[in-house]
Amino acid sequence: MALATFFLLLSSLISLGLPWIVRRQVDSILVDRQMVTLTLLLGLISLFLIQAFFSFGHNYLLGAVGQRVLAELRASLFSHLQTLSLSFFTRRRTGELLSRLTNDLAVIQTLSTEMPVNLTRQALTLIGGVAILLYMNWRLTFLVLLLIPIVVAIARWMGKRLKQFSISVQDHLADTTTLMEEMISGIRTIKSFGRESYEQIRFSRQIEKTLAVTLARLRISAAFGPVMIFLGFSAAAGILWYGAREILLGKITPGEIIAFIIYAMIITGPIGSFARLFSQLQEGLGSSQRVFEILDTKPLVTDAPNARPLPPIRGEVRFREVSFHYLADQPVLQEISFAVQPGEKVALIGPSGAGKSTLIHLLHRFYDPVSGSIEVDGRPLKEVTIKSYYDQIAFVPQEVILFGGTLRENILYGKPDATEAELLAASRAAHAHDFITAFPHGYQTQVGEKGLTLSGGQRQRIAIARAFLKNPRLLILDEATAYLDNESELFVQEALERLMAGKTTFVIAHRLTTIQKADRILVLNKGCLAEQGTHPELIERRGLYYHLYTLKIVGAEASLPEQETS
Ligand code: ATP
């Protein structure tokens, strides 16, 4: 930064000196009738060369500083986003976040690279230019300076309009990104309802609106330069008119008046661009506010100051009067208490919206309870470090996410330092080895974008292999509701049973066999623990479970194969 400023200073000084040399030459040609000497010509060319070098130096150095700032900002945004609690993401639309990461960062990028260079150069030019003008002819200078307030007033007015439109453009761009993101993630729904043309119209309307405000901004920014140039030339004409009289009166030389006009034009530039830079700065401040709002958000779930690592656990889980809400006046879980012994299989069931996923989120420490506590092996989760807890649990979600990369990398996601033997054992146990080796590239097969697409059952088996590698003591499952074909279903079930063996398991259960085999069934209703017990116990009680079991589950699973419903 310091070196860049030094270069900038030198290159600006040379720029300011050039009209002075022009003045001398004009006078020696016009007044003294002398030819330009070769030495002077060479001297001038050398000066241009030096100036070019200094210009390159400060352009590059200041640009590089800006780019580094941006790269760092991008990296810290990415890593900070990962530390934020789940609630941060559920409250925002993905498209809106992406817009901040792309559109807003782009604005900051322009600002951080161009702003320092422009601002410093313009300031130097303005100060130097005015000083030289005053030295040359103070009366003429005052004439020039009279024009400045007019220029500034016009520039500021235009700047303000530009800022208003810029905010609106950024908002519209964010909405456009959101629509695009929703289209991509919701493509199945769009296609199955045949709403492509509706989405097209919705998107076209959005594009039209964005285009309209962008064009409005463009009109102003396009007019900006010409207006400033017009004002500059008008000033030059005024100086010429006044200067001509002074020359005729013999008060100044022709060289002086030419140099004066050049200087006057030189300083009109900075005055115009100050206002523009000011509005750019406003625009940039808006964007950085949106970006720093993310960086300043603190994760809700963090390690307590006195948190200790959780020693290897046996898998005992206890909920003590746990209550939770997402929004202050809408309780989701109310005073839930239960205790689970190591190795127990717990099935969570209940009507939709009863709070099953929320309970799992709390157990996973995606959120902390509002009141009450969750204990693992007698230790409250709030008193242990998150990492040491996560190292001992595994989560198999309903929707398995595979990251871009090879199948091997995807399985190793659970334990990057696993040995080859561990990897193969986990894949075999998860019934994934056979289908993986059937692909031409085996474990090196690329998945995700432009790669292989796996079936639902295959994805689940990859997720199970991931969990096997981790060998957790506590397992959290969100059972897939999607219908798998018989063979795939069987493989997934077998793999899951092997995975659950000997581990404390919580499963949001959708399949009858899972529920029937559970050591304990927790029946949730409207955020309360309505009943708990084994399948026979709860059937006998003829309460909510009995009702759900006979009416809903049997009905819903009637279409499943024989073995499921028998
Ligand atoms: P389902 O079987 O339909 O998945 P569930 O039993 O898993 O339902 P939860 O997802 O835990 O139910 O939701 C419980 C309640 O909490 C619902 O009323 C839901 O509207 C609310 N809820 C869930 N997530 C959020 C959130 N991020 N912000 C606000 N409210 C939420």
From TrEMBL:
Enumerate the Pfam families for this protein.
ABC_membrane, ABC_tran
Can you give the residue ranges of the ABC transmembrane type-1 domain? Answer: 2-283
Protein's UniProt keywords contain rRNA processing: no
The protein's matches in SMART domains, at most eight in alphabetical order, are given as: AAA
GO CC annotation terms, alphabetical: plasma membrane
Entry keywords, A to Z:
ATP-binding, Membrane, Nucleotide-binding, Transmembrane, Transmembrane helix
Q: Which domain of life is it from?
A: Bacteria
Give compartment(s). Cell membrane
Query: Which GO terms fall under molecular function for this chain's record?
Result: ABC-type oligopeptide transporter activity; ATP binding; ATP hydrolysis activity
Where does this chain mainly localize?
Answer: membrane
Q: Which residues does the UniProt record annotate as the domain ABC transporter?
A: 317-551
Which SUPFAM superfamilies does the record match to this protein?
A: ABC transporter transmembrane region, P-loop containing nucleoside triphosphate hydrolases
Q: What stretches pass through the bilayer? A: 35-54, 142-159, 220-242, 257-278
Instruction: Determine if Transport is one of this entry's keywords.
Output: no
Membrane topology designation: Multi-pass membrane protein
Q: Which PANTHER family match?
A: ATP-BINDING CASSETTE SUB-FAMILY B MEMBER 10, MITOCHONDRIAL (PTHR43394:SF1), ATP-DEPENDENT PERMEASE MDL1, MITOCHONDRIAL (PTHR43394)
What protein is this chain from?
A: ABC transporter ATP-binding protein
Organism name = Candidatus Manganitrophus noduliformans
